[in-house]
């Protein structure tokens, strides 16, 4: 861009133009004609000279200029519809840039968003969207799955930054129109449907398209939680719980080392905090938002229940780690709903892995002890409490034996050495029981 502007500033005609518009006397002499002409001085200029001026202006300057009058903004929109403008201001920026150039590309699309926002200010919402889309629609990076550099192309992110700036401050009704417009023009709903009805992992490219498009264009660019919630709800709301669970995992689940969605990874391998954090943040966002039309915060618990067995039950440590990352309210609600339904062995297993993850990830063991106590309170009868405690303690032995068998088989599946796992579990058990004994002694 710098070289481009220096090219323009060095031309003769530019100097001539500046020398003509500078003198104050000219401005005052023409005031009468200006009032009746919305294009002002520029009406006298040949179209190509006016285009030349617009080429010289930065996006922000052009955005301010567009607010001078309806005629000026029409001229600017016409100029922006030319292929020369599109090539220079849009297409060339979509060439997948190096990470170092990413910052300036994001700034560029933010400024373009401002330009489109200002120059379409007087148009109805649908026309504003139509105009913006007509300028961007031919970029292959924005058509689902047509960019040669997919999935490494940053096109969706650039478009997301542009779109977020364009629609910043629009009310919910208008944002719904934006979502409908995007669905109509990109076939988003049909792509999502194909991705969530396919066997998990079978249409891995389609799953990635959904993930990158939704996160890049619709979700990742918002700063306020209520905006993030609104757009996530737009994506999730049309689908039943089973599909919502699939979709949430496609959008935020961990990836595998080959770049595919990590369905197999959460089942067969231990996933660290970093891999589950995005999912946990999305779950917290859905859970913490007050009830709205078509959404109850409790729905997210059913989604989690479904997600953690899709397509097959996750590794217990991954379930426990996700629950811990989601915080104590969600964790308790999941365990308590299992307790109410008498799923003792499931809760016990989850609690043992909560204790193991607390040990491994360095959380205070008091957290796991309090969670166990709280879940125990769900059982009102003494005999039920006793069965619960027995079940938890038996599960300690069971999981220890499982790990011991893994050690004996010498099978470590690419994860942590099973012997280290076993040592962690024994340490976790010691710390957990120390905390319980200490708490009961303190009471006495
Ligand atoms: Zn691309």
Structure in a nutshell:
With 444 residues, this protein is mainly α. Helices cover 73% and strands 0% of the residues.
Features of the shown structure:
single chain; 444 residues; mainly alpha; 73% helix; 0% strand; elongated; disordered N terminus; binds zinc ion; F-box domain-containing protein
Question: Your description of this structure?
Answer:
This protein has 444 residues and is mainly alpha-helical. The chain has a domain at 318-444. It is 73% helix and 0% strand. The protein is built from 25 helices and no strands. It has helices at residues 2-9, 12-21, 24-29, 31-36, 47-56, 59-66, 70-80, 83-94, 99-119, 125-136, 155-167, 172-186, 188-197, 204-219, 225-236, 241-252, 263-268, 273-288, 299-307, 316-326, 328-340, 344-361, 365-378, 382-409, 418-443. Helix 16 (241-252) crosses helix 19 and helix 21 (328-340) packs parallel to helix 23. The longest helix is centred in the last third of the chain and has 28 residues, at 382-409. Bound molecules: zinc ion (ZN). Residues 1-34 are annotated as: Disordered. Residues 39-88 form the F-box domain. Residues 1-12 have a biased composition (Low complexity). This is F-box domain-containing protein. Residues 13-27 have a biased composition (Basic residues).
């Amino acid at each position: 861009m710098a070289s481009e502007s220096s090219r323009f500033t060095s031309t003769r005609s530019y100097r001539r133009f500046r020398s003509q518009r500078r003198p104050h006397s000219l401005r005052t002499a023409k005031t009468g004609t200006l009032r009746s002409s919305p294009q002002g001085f520029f009406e006298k200029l040949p179209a190509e000279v006016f285009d030349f001026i617009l080429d010289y202006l930065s996006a922000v300057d052009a955005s301010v200029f567009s607010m001078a009058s309806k005629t000026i903004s029409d001229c600017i929109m016409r100029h922006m519809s030319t292929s020369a403008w599109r090539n220079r201001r849009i297409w060339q920026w979509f060439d997948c840039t190096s990470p170092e150039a990413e910052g300036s590309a994001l700034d560029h699309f933010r400024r373009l968003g401002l330009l489109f926002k200002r120059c379409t200010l007087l148009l109805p919402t649908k026309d504003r969207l139509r105009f913006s889309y007509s300028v961007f629609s031919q970029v292959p990076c924005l058509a689902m799955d047509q960019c040669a550099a997919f999935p490494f192309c940053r096109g969706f992110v650039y478009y997301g930054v542009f779109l977020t700036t364009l629609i910043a401050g629009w009310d919910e009704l208008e944002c719904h129109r934006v979502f409908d417009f995007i669905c109509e023009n990109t076939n988003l709903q049909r792509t999502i449907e194909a991705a969530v009805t396919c066997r998990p992992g079978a249409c891995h490219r389609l799953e990635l398209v959904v993930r990158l498009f939704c996160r890049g264009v619709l979700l990742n660019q918002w700063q306020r939680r209520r905006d993030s919630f609104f757009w996530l709800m737009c994506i999730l709301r049309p689908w039943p719980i089973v599909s919502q669970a699939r979709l949430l995992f496609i959008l935020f689940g961990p990836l595998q080392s080959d770049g595919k969605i990590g369905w197999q990874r959460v089942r067969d391998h231990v996933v660290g905090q970093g891999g589950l954090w995005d999912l946990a943040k999305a779950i917290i966002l859905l859970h913490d938002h007050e009830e709205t039309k078509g959404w109850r915060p409790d729905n997210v618990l059913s989604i989690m229940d479904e997600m953690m067995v899709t397509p097959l039950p996750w590794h217990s440590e991954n379930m426990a780690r996700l629950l811990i990352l989601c915080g104590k309210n969600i964790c308790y609600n999941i365990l308590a709903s299992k307790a109410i339904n008498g799923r003792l062995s499931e809760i016990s297993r989850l609690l043992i892995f909560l204790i193991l993850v607390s040990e491994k990830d360095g959380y205070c063991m008091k957290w796991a002890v309090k969670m166990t106590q709280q879940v125990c309170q769900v059982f009102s009868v003494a005999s039920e409490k006793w069965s619960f405690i027995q079940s938890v303690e038996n599960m300690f032995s069971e999981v220890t034996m499982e790990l011991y068998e893994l050690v004996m088989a010498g099978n470590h599946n690419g994860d942590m050495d099973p012997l280290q796992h076993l040592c962690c579990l024994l340490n976790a058990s010691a710390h957990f029981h120390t905390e319980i004994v200490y708490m009961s002694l303190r009471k006495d």
